[in-house]
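Schema walkthrough. Field components (list of strings):
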Amino acid sequence: MEGTPITQVNNPNQAHVPTRACLRQWVGFFVIGVLLYLALYAWAEIQVRTTGQKNRFFMIATAPPQKLDFVILGASHAMPLGFGDTEAQFEARSGATIMNLSNEGAGVLPNLFVYDYFSRRHSATNVIYVVDSFAFYSSEWNEDRLTDSDLFRRAPLDRDLIATFLAHPWSRGILPEYLSGFAKINGLYRLGSDIPDAESRKFTRTYRPNKQIDKTRIDYLFASEDPQAAIEKYLGDFAELIARVQASGADFIAVKLPTPPRYRDRLPGEAAFDAKMATILDSAHVEMHDFSGVLPGDEFYYDTDHLNLAGVEAVAGLGLTDLLVDEK
Amino acid sequence: MLLNSFSFLWFFALVAVVYYSIPGRFRWVLLLVASYYFYSAFELAYLVLLAYATAAAYVFGRLVEDGSQNPRGKLWLGLGVLAQLSVLAVFKYADFLLESVESALAPFSLFQNALAIPRLGWLLPVGLSFFTFSCVSYIIDCYRGKLRAERHLGHLAVYVAFFPKLVAGPIERATSFLPQLREGATFDPVRVAFGLQLLLWGLFKKVVIADRLAEFVDAGFTNTAFQSPVTVLISVYFYAFQIYCDFSGYSDMAIGLAAILGFTLIENFRRPYLSRNIAEFWSKRWHISLANWFRDYLYIPLGGSRMSRPRFYLNVMAVFAVSGLWHGASWTFVIWGAINGFYQVIWLMLAGLRQRLAAVIPGALWTAISVLLTFHLIVFAWVFFRAATLSGAIAIFDRVWSALSLYPSLLRTYNWTPEFWLSLTLIVVLMIVECFDEVRSIFHRIAALPLLPRWGLYYSMIACLLVIGRWSGAEFVYMQF
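Field assembly_structure (string):
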């Protein structure tokens, strides 16, 4: 009943095939394979462009060149400012044009990268950077985040993006993977909607606090082998980002968004980080607008630390809209 | 550098091209350099262990050669085996032993933590169990006169470190490998094409199936008490296929990579879930190279089946318990091995009943019942293999059994995601392929196809790898052993 053991298939005495004919077949197989890959690549590119909505690289690549009043950078805390129709609400109330380019888990380097790419197509009068201390603690939120293929899964093939990759030593290594289009092809079958899960499913929820979940979240965000060295390094990169923004003629505005006290009080070394951040900001004549303590209630958050719809509306009324109006 | 990564595939392509471009007499140097480079990618310091295992095998191989005519042969053999196993003992079992001693003495301790025995805390070097067993088999084969001790240290080093099989086997014998290395390989397109097919199939099993199932398995085996019983049940069944696709995928890739370089490695898996009994599963179909190793170097020296009945059963139990311990330094592995030994003993004891049943039940039905029963016994034992602790394994059974009467409603309301259906479909496809393979080799079937459907099949598999493959760099399960 049992079939031939595979090692017997590997029998050098079986039918002899001339090497040259075999190699010719292999070349044919390879060429057709490359053509099929290119077809798959083209299909993936079309899918990325037809289904794209909120992906930051897609937004930059497909928006007509323009000068915006505000560009928002930062990590996931900044993302709710663009969820649902909140960005349109901010625009209506302030009369300013806004593009939210914040990304989940994005530290200084991913933001520097995104801003560099943005600047090749568009310009901004103001850049709002939503500061999150965790993003300065580890390469996971910086160099490693840039190598995360998920980040570029929906990034259209674009000359300016290639130039951006080449412009930074820490992003050059990712260029081959981006050019190969593998991340797009590999994500084809789960492309679906280009709306973050947090926006489509969680934004209107209210969080029920859980100490264990809060702790797990903090442990995850602040895991670092050498936090002090990381903070020094990424604060240096942050200073470079400020300099670049200011050199492009835009104003740099630093903002801390609200977080609940049960979360904020657990942050390790936050006061020391704030002091270091203040030194960087002072030397660049940048003001920090700190909203971190204005919304203590859990009803303003959809999870451990992210603003929900009620939270965004509340912080808008507590000074964020005024900031946009003043700085516009 | 994992076999399921693009960096490895590029590395291998480069090695293969250079391998066939240089004269045969230099190829062992290339293989050795490539193997040491490959191993150093995990941790540079591990190279010391690899070099030590090779040097010890070389020295003791020479000392024990033709042990029967060598008055000190037995002594050198004992020392040689000890030299190999001591590294394994220190890196793999020392902490387990210390922990067990501490737990055993804890009830006698007057103060809490009074018996806190310090641990070594050393990381287990990748593939240590595999290359240690290769070296042990080499020394014993030299002693038994099956093999002339290798005079060429470089060749022996390649045998120990040959990178396709280094981190998770198959546990190749020197009697088969060294002659191939000496003989050298000429470029054979048929052999290379066969190697590429196996590489593709192994990658498919690992990247498309195993790593997809891993998500379901991890969900069920993590925080089990908080998971739906359906989630846990799915994770138990899916684990059987995850570990099979993960490990056999690696073996297929290793055999394929070796074939491309002109080497034939031992077949390690042969459609295990079509086994009709536990003995067949372990002796002929699952991790064949390890089963053969235990048979030749432990079971037969213990007396095998040529002993009294109780001693025979004891030998079986001992071999399975040691096999369990080989897999990992934890009681879960020991129990897993003991369960399999117990299955085997019961199966042997029920020989008369089996014959009577086989006589009255139609052949096909008897085969189907045997295959299904064997599969479920294996699935049961896998729970101990996968669970991190004994209590974790018990929690799995508790979760599955406690909700027995609720399954109709739980199944109706369960969130059957597209990812689940895709995973199930892949398992069904795998088993259909295995059923066909059981009758006639799937590689022969493919070879007999006309060009168009054959290439279509290859392109479809490559497309699956690209589009639905999980290229997250998940390690192979057996690498931790």
